[in-house]
Fold this sequence. Notes:
Elements: E1 2-5, H1 8-18, H2 27-49, E2 62-67, E3 72-77, H3 84-90, H4 97-109, E4 130-138, E5 147-151, E6 156-161, E7 169-176, H5 186-196, E8 204-206, E9 209-211, H6 227-238, E10 246-252, E11 258-264, E12 280-285, E13 288-291, E14 306-310, H7 320-324, H8 327-350, H9 352-372, H10 377-381, E15 387-388, H11 399-404, E16 413-417, H12 421-425, H13 430-435, E17 440-443, H14 448-455, E18 457-458, E19 461-465, H15 488-501, E20 508-511, E21 520-523, H16 531-539, E22 550-553, H17 558-569, H18 571-588, H19 595-610
Parallel strand pairs: 2-8, 12-14, 16-17, 16-19, 20-22
Antiparallel strand pairs: 1-6, 2-3, 3-7, 4-5, 4-7, 5-6, 8-9, 10-11, 11-14, 12-13, 15-17, 18-19, 21-22
The structure holds adenosine-5'-diphosphate and magnesium ion.
Amino acid sequence: MAHQQFQTEVRQLLDIVIHAFYSDREVFVRELVSNASDALEKLRLKQLTESAVYEPERELRIAITTDEEAKTLTIADSGIGMTEEEVVEFLGTIAHSGTKKFLEAAKEKGGAQDLIGQFGVGFYSVFMAADKVEVTTRSWQPDAAPVHWVSDGQEGYELEAAPADTPRGTSILIHLKEDAANFSKPDHVRYVLGKYSNFVGFPIDFNGEHLNTVQAIWMKNKKDVTEEEYTGFYNFIAHTEGKPLTHMHFSADAPIVLNSVLFVPEENPEMMGFGRTKPDVALYCHKVLIDSKPDKLLPEWLRFLSGVVDSEDLPLNISREMLQDNSLLRRISGIITKRFIKHLTELAKNDADTYEKFWRGFGRYIKEGIVTSWEHKPELSKLLRFESTFTDAGKLTSFADYVSRMKENQKDIYVLYGASRAQLEHSPYLDALTARGFEVCFFTEGGDPFVVDGLMKFDEKDIKAIDRAGLELPPMEDTAPDAPALDETAAKTLTDWVTEAFKDKFSKVSTTDRVTSAPAIALQAENDLSPEVKAYLRAMGQEVPETHPEIAFNPRNPIVLKLAELQGSDTELAKLLATQLIDTALLRAGMLDDPAALAENSQQLLEKLLNK
Ligand code: ADP
Ligand code: MG
């Protein structure tokens, strides 16, 4: 028997590990099972590449046994095993770079007890729960002697020859500390295995019985996974019944090894009043759980997804802190996000009904994505759905379809914001567009102006809100040349008078052919804040700057003709009438700050007219 000292770093690490929080201890099971799985994987590779492997017929399995009386837990595998030199290197020094980093972080912080649960510290984590560990191992190499390693995790370890009949692989016998004796209780160990090791790719025998593990379907070729398997897996990971609305299965070997399955649930829980959804995509490294709910794995707007992202390029023992600030993880996030957007794009193309269902349940997240993920804006804008002047009520269209229907002389894409289709259908702003045969998109959800204005363009075409000043439309043949209208002089007299009568209220007063159905329209001046932004600022308790809309009169409207006349003869009545027309226009534009004033003016106007 030879006594050997641990390397200094190992002793430092063990010192931290031994004082770990009680609640963190269970991760040692994950570490040892993942080592067993790695060892089996490596053996499988040896079988392919080496001519001779010890005990070639031995099955590749993991065997876990508990002994409550003896207070032990044993985790054994028939994997690659270790030679004596390997044992000395792997279980006596810090061979792993991740562990080294952990130690550095711990030193920097002057203690890292609180990090252990998040870091996997590899093999040495067993000393969180053990006061003695025995490792018996035999290498795959036919002529290697089996070895037995024992340590109490203090100063060093004993090494001796193991019995000649030791089978290939590694068996780790854990003598549990008094206060960690629950790891010798079958129920507790089964629970811990269920938490971390559900997807291990080798059969696990637990106290002689085969433990049902769930297949890591994300590691399979998607051609080999059935619809039922996806649903079953979804039910398992999302703790839910029923089918997902859609799923994406994505694998890549370059530039990063990535395997992922993501599900969109049938219903949006946020819409059912369950509050903000928490991200539910788990991060795995080669089928072993790293973090079941990593915060920053995918962008916030994808929080409705559940599923798995697996990358062999990630170290298993990565801390949550490192996860938040990991460039590899950011790249993974970017790749998955892009791929998921592509999935939705294809869904929209190939299965419009399902996509429409998705849109009605989850469209708001796409809008959130447009506002928050600028790099994905162009692709996300293709996923937007809305109604328009060309669709029947309740039917949806897209910008791409809109563009395909654009008239030859139409340069821009036209949109209008409001509370409902019913309201927008009667909007005077539509007149000029309808008269030209141009389609107008209706956006009726709260944040839409932020989303759509933020897009600015689609397919190189400007997106223009038709209730803004400065809207340039192609000229139109005069459709009613003979109808009475204000001539140029009369129009100027009227607009000059209104400008004067409402001094400093409007940035411009004019006549326009943009409106045919109403006497006047109010237009948001180019540098003014939109009504939506003003409402937002008001809601945030911030100061709201004054705005100066433009007012445009319809020179063919009989009331306007009358107004032009009155303005020269009965200024008082003219002022009441002008106020009425203007406030109504402002109201329709959502720009009337004080509706009570409109009511009062109506009353005065009526009184005046009735007394005439
Ligand atoms: P990691 O698994 O990240 O390399 P660990 O501390 O978990 O770090 O393990 C250290 C090394 O010990 C492993 O890389 C492996 O070479 C060896 N080892 C651990 N457990 C086993 C096992 N069950 N069979 C064979 N080798 C093992
Ligand atoms: Mg390991």
